[in-house]
Specification:
The complex is a heterodimer of chains A (110) and B (111). Chain A has 110 residues and is mostly beta strands. The relative contact order of chain A is 0.34. Chain A contains no helices and 11 strands. Chain B contains no helices and 11 strands. In chain B, strands 2, 4, 5, 6, 9, 10 and 11 form a 7-stranded mixed sheet that branches. A 4-stranded antiparallel sheet of chain B has the order 1-3-8-7, with no helix packed on it. The chains are: A mainly beta (110), B mainly beta (111).
């Protein structure tokens, strides 16, 4: 079983829909990251969370430490939001590297 | 300012050959990470440098893989006797805090 699990693997939505991507983890963490990867490989960091909720534009990320669960929400989705969204955690302790989920492929149709 | 750069962007090689992949981190970033991403999967950790030294190399799959960062800036990932299973996107990231900044990756194809 992977330490970081994402769902769904693939998601297709119509423009304007509210989107939720989920991430569960089975290990102790010091932080959780949401990343966006566009075709060709480039990865951009969207959020880093250790508790609570963060909002940036149409993106909202929440984390529940007790339940070891995080969600990424996109409001008023747009075709340009189409990308792979990846959840990654930094394990508790001295580790600095990230452990990644397998990603969610989001396609927003016009 | 300049982000993380990686060269080459694509590398095609034959089984058994030696390859070097280069990463130029953001200036001043002391931490540098190498990850490998297979198609349809999330990246997997290979090695992490703090300055010139490898702080954690537990993700290197075997002794054919080696990485250096001699002056604490540019890093080179070296793969000896390449195998078809080494084909993947190799990603580099650098940080000076908690946020990692990723390069565009090198797509390695071993024929």
């Amino acid at each position: 079983k992977n330490e970081v699990e994402q769902s769904p693997q693939n998601l297709t939505a119509q423009e304007g829909e509210f989107i939720t991507i989920n991430c569960s983890y089975s290990v102790g963490i010091s932080a959780l990251h949401w990343l966006q990867q566009h075709p060709g490989g480039g990865i951009v960091s969207l959020f880093m969370l250790s508790s609570g909720k963060k909002k940036h534009g149409r993106l909202i990320a929440t984390i529940n430490i007790q339940e070891k669960h995080s969600s990424l929400h996109i409001t008023a989705s747009h075709p340009r939001d189409s990308a792979v969204y990846i959840c990654a955690v930094r394990l508790s302790g001295s580790a600095r590297q990230l452990t990644f989920g397998s990603g969610t492929q989001l396609t927003v149709l016009p | 300012g300049a982000g993380v750069s990686q060269t080459p962007s694509n590398k095609v090689t034959e089984k058994g050959k030696y390859v070097e992949l280069r990463c130029d981190p953001i200036s001043g970033h002391t931490a540098l990470y190498w990850y490998r991403q297979s198609l349809g999967q999330g990246p997997e950790f290979l090695i992490y440098f703090q300055g010139t030294g490898a702080a954690d190399d537990s993700g290197l799959p075997n002794d054919r893989f080696f990485a250096v960062r001699p002056e604490g800036s540019v890093s080179t990932l070296k793969i000896q006797r390449t195998e078809r299973g080494d084909s993947a996107m190799y990603l580099c990231a650098s940080s000076q805090g908690d946020t990692q900044y990723f390069g565009p990756g090198t797509r390695l194809t071993v024929l």
